[in-house]
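Colleagues,

Please find the record for the four-part complex below.
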Amino acid sequence: MSKICSLAEAIQQFIHDGDTVFCAGFTHLIPFAAGHEIIRQGRKNLTLARATPDLIYDQMVAAGCAKKLVFSYIGNPGVGSLRIVREEMEAGRLEWEEYSHFGMISRLQAGAAGLPFMPMNQNAAPDLEKNNPNIRRVKDPYSGREVLTVPALHPDVGIIHVQRADKNGNAQVWGILGEQKEAAFASKDVIITAEEIVDEDVIRSDPNRTLIPGLIVKAVCHVPHCAHPSYTQGYYDRDNVFYLNWDKISENRDSVNSWLDEWVFGVKNAAEYWEKLGPETHARLAVKPRYAAPVNYGDY
Amino acid sequence: MSKICSLAEAIQQFIHDGDTVFCAGFTHLIPFAAGHEIIRQGRKNLTLARATPDLIYDQMVAAGCAKKLVFSYIGNPGVGSLRIVREEMEAGRLEWEEYSHFGMISRLQAGAAGLPFMPMNQNAAPDLEKNNPNIRRVKDPYSGREVLTVPALHPDVGIIHVQRADKNGNAQVWGILGEQKEAAFASKDVIITAEEIVDEDVIRSDPNRTLIPGLIVKAVCHVPHCAHPSYTQGYYDRDNVFYLNWDKISENRDSVNSWLDEWVFGVKNAAEYWEKLGPETHARLAVKPRYAAPVNYGDY
Amino acid sequence: MSELTYTASELMCINAARLLRDGDVVFVGVGLPNLACNLARRTHAPSLQMIYEAGVIGARPNRLPLSIGDPTLVSGASSVCSMFDIFSLYLQRGNVDVGFLGGAQIDRFGNINATVIGDYHKPKVRLPGSGGSQEIAGWANRCYIMTPHQKRRFPEKCDFITSAGFLNGRAEREATGARGGGPLVIVTNLGILEPDENGELILTALHPGCTYDQVKENTGWAIRAAETVRTTEPVTDVELKILREELDPDGAYLKGS
Amino acid sequence: MSELTYTASELMCINAARLLRDGDVVFVGVGLPNLACNLARRTHAPSLQMIYEAGVIGARPNRLPLSIGDPTLVSGASSVCSMFDIFSLYLQRGNVDVGFLGGAQIDRFGNINATVIGDYHKPKVRLPGSGGSQEIAGWANRCYIMTPHQKRRFPEKCDFITSAGFLNGRAEREATGARGGGPLVIVTNLGILEPDENGELILTALHPGCTYDQVKENTGWAIRAAETVRTTEPVTDVELKILREELDPDGAYLKGS
């Protein structure tokens, strides 16, 4: 049974005000188009969870979608500060819950594995543990020494961008894997956005490449260039110029609002957004092919 | 720096009497040739750990290499009983430590992750927990309910068969993954046996396919057909006929000893063993190619 | 129809197949459960999703697999993952609807022994052990069991509980916090047993031509019968034909008994 | 040689590169640590193995990555794994020899603050937070820090300990059971600080032309000097040439200060 629908339909159906949303992807495959669609549809009071909020959550916070942030690093990767998020936190207008990267990912792993918590070895750093009551301890029943724990995270919705998926939601990913798999299995509902919708036979020709199985997926959306200004390995490059520009745009709210008006509210969907970027940007982000060596599964 | 050596050299250097050895592979990629080399070199008092001891440990137990078995299922997969192992256990001549599959794999995962233990949800089954003091409990610090724990397993040596590896030990696997990755990271020393030694560029063309990184590998051995009568996906089929035959061979010790004399002590190495199987068996186990769809990483 | 002849294995397999619901995610073993699932897929449950403990999801085998890790399960499958992932992300997470279980002994409360006859530390008969079944029994939403109906296979109490049924009663299982629903149906060659409100197995259906007396004779405790004991639908020639001609043409699993 | 001119970043980067040993497995961040590692690989440590928190092992980037997840790190790498795996199988397991750390504040015992200036719940300046550094500081065998030598960056005590140095002394860190050795060397633009037997940072080397007085002026506590304070080897034109012509030709990281 096909799960294909438009991204607008998927957001409409699965994301509700007050939900905890996880837009997955570590630098790679960040589903910006989904974030923009959430902004366009005016969702409010979301809890936004991601290791690195990146520009996608900076934009969603700026647009007033978020009540709370769950994160482990609030920077503009490779550039500097995440200005909107930082300003809202400093002003006391945004709640937050903070972990280390490993704490954050361990929360997802526990959620994905159906465990109530994950243990982590002690790292000697005292202050995050002191300030986050969700970071606790249990005694290792073998040595008697204590290990740290973090509780399972179960987002209401996980949005996962991938290179290719079939209509059932079987999704294949290569390049940086980040926390895509863990976020998908941890979430109650999973929305897949894909650069390409391919025939089932393509997926079945390489089952080890399937990171997310259709059986946990609710919706599959065909969204080419979904990740811009992040990137999709093999499809287009990271738009480092935009990451640098955002540092300037986000210096004041007027320019942020103008940007949102023009690039989010001013376009209908990801296709229009990409079109609007224009041929020069398309050319700048284009990438020449470099193929993986063949792999023979055998015709058993 | 190349880590390539012969299988005999690797066993000689890294496997010592009394070691805990993990010959990895769930049905797929079981490194039989390594087991046979351990028998030929006359190792004693080994603790043999595997989820399913399979014929490889039945043979090693028959040859007198083992003091103890750590396992979760002692059957001849798809056939029935594992006669030698069962007889030795019933006779009180073989120590054992027993888990469920998930308990066994969780022990490896804990070992691989550097954790002292892994939690598992309760499964309501009381008797294995009662009889194995290594299965314990901790209280989930969030709900207050108890979860089960198993302790990390750290084999002295993990032997991992793979489709292809480079001289540094970067190893790629497809088909059933079993516990190959976890066993490698959990072990103190890792020996890779590979169907093919390939140029680094082959590995680097598809980094997501690399299951085991060279940096944890001590020795890389070129051993085509290492897995027979188990199989290597895409290279040769499982020898189901042998699995059925072993059920008869292992009915009495004389026929087992004759088999060991002929097929282990009577050959010098895996190449001679394969040659001795003869062209009919080679033809029976041959497999026609079926290739994975191409994957483009992009030339960044 | 009533003149069709079939083996006990065929009878159990067909009745087990009928229990599966379209769309179910099933944790499959080789042998009869594999055949039952494939029969269901070819009849009333085309969207059945089969996953194997070896880490294979959505297999499309071109031949009957001898072992649970056969390469034919991999070529053409929709996904392959590690064993750690299949047990944690799928089974422990609650993504498995149905598990199949089997063992040397099944007791009054549906507990299963696949470990040992006699004392654990001095085994009289050492059996294979849990494999994946301890967690399947604990965590699958529903569990089904197929087993020949023999007194030694149905003792009042197992020598060793490898996989949990309802322990000494449904409340005891529930108190452990295990997420799964436990054994829902036991299919034998005589009929069907189901747990009552206390988790005790009772006879709820007989296959055509079988009797409650036969069941009592072949059960190790005084087995009760439900108020109304159904008769199972007769085996059809369509079901037999699929099993015999498509799924197990060599009779590897269905021949004999 | 002594007439070469270089920026503070170049000086720190070159001195950090010299600390790396051939064969080291290094958990690399972007920016200066990335440049230091690549400089070491091109000089005395050709077998240095670089791994990135994004899950990339053995990268061979064709261009200078802006972010830690740049696609150029992936194409041609020897392995890519999930974040969960890179932090657990590599870092927590003890497979990482060297980690690089940085932060807004580094205190007397090498503790690092990358989280907040002021109160945690009512931040005066909210910094990025831990990212991967809490576990790198806890678990890498050796940690190195590069930072400009300024009083505000070297307070006696951090406002918030994001990543552990030696807490209030080496014994306190050891009591936590964290496996890693903690900060081994802090490279600044003035010289090199190392922990003494109690874990307190002391001056052990000065760069050519720099003085202990400058260090004291720019440190937030009364920093002690080792009995013998070395002078670091002068920067060579070979090192500068590799940095400027091969590794960062646009001066993205090395220009300025």
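The mean pLDDT of chain C is 94.

Comments are welcome before we finalize the supplementary table.
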